Amino acid sequence: MSTRFTTTNNAPDEMNRSAYASPIYITLLSVTTTITNLCLGAITMSALLFIHAFSLPSSMKQHIYLCGIGYMILMAQAIQSLNPHSGWARLVKYQDRRVVHWMLQIVASILVVVGSIIRMMDVTSNFSTAHGILGLIALILTILSMVGGIVSAYSSKLNINPAYMRIAHSCIGSLTLSAAFLCLLFAFNTTFRAGMGNKNANLAIAMTVIGLVGTLTSPCLDVVRRMIRNVRSN
Q1: How far is CA 28 from each of CA 132, 178, 233, rounded to the nearest angstrom?
Q2: Helix H segments across the chain?
Q3: What percent of the chain stands above pLDDT 90?
């Protein structure tokens, strides 16, 4: 079964975004998205180049491949896919973007769960470092985010307020990505710094921060907008 993409944004929720429809806002968001994606691509390539520059255990290489692509590429793009003014998403209907969001989230979650388990099975002292602890938190939040997404999708059938479920799902998703990127920051500050030097490590850390902030800007604004609207409606 194939999904047919069309070039209109006609979701009822998006038609009422008059406060966000100004050309200045759209331009700023587009520039932010472009810079964000450049940084995401750069830090992903930095991590992948690092594992081929040195002789590392197989489990570590698999861990970096799976979790790096899962969190930094797929999950970040899944979050951006729901932004109607973000890159390719501007050309796709809201319902089609939800399909893309689900597909990216499912694949990303599978990759990071497998990648995390592979490393945890090979390293017994994994949870004695900040990187390991944050990685475990990110893994737990990833699972919670998927469960929350399923509940949010069927909230109307479960007699749960869908507006509150979307807010909760957005918050958990943002926390998941934050934990994953913080985990990456500690990896860049320790192992990556030791192998690639201070300048490369500092650059990678800066791009990671920019990538995280840029990715979460739109969902955070959307959560605030939804909360304000719910308060006014009540």
Answers
A1: 36, 22, 29
A2: 12-15, 23-53, 58-67, 76-80, 94-122, 130-153, 162-187, 193-196, 198-233
A3: 38
CATH number of residue 49's parent domain? 1.20.120.1770
Helix (H, G, I), strand (E, B) or coil at 56: coil
Angle between helices 23-53 and 58-67 (to 10 degrees): 170
Instruction: Classify residue 16: in a domain, yes or no.
Output: no
* 138-171 confidence digits (pLDDT tens): 999 999 988 888 887 777 677 777 777 888 888 8
Q: Give the Å distances, CA to CA, from 151 to 1, 143, 198.
A: 24, 13, 44
**Overall residue count recorded for the chain in this entry:** 234
Range of the domain at 185: 24-233
Number of domains, the chain? 1
Task: Establish if 42 belongs to a structural domain.
Answer: yes
User: Judging by beta carbons within 10 Å of its beta carbon (0-12, 13-18, 19+), is residue 207 exposed, middle or buried?
Assistant: buried
> Which tens digits make up the pLDDT trace of 198-215?
999 999 999 999 999 999
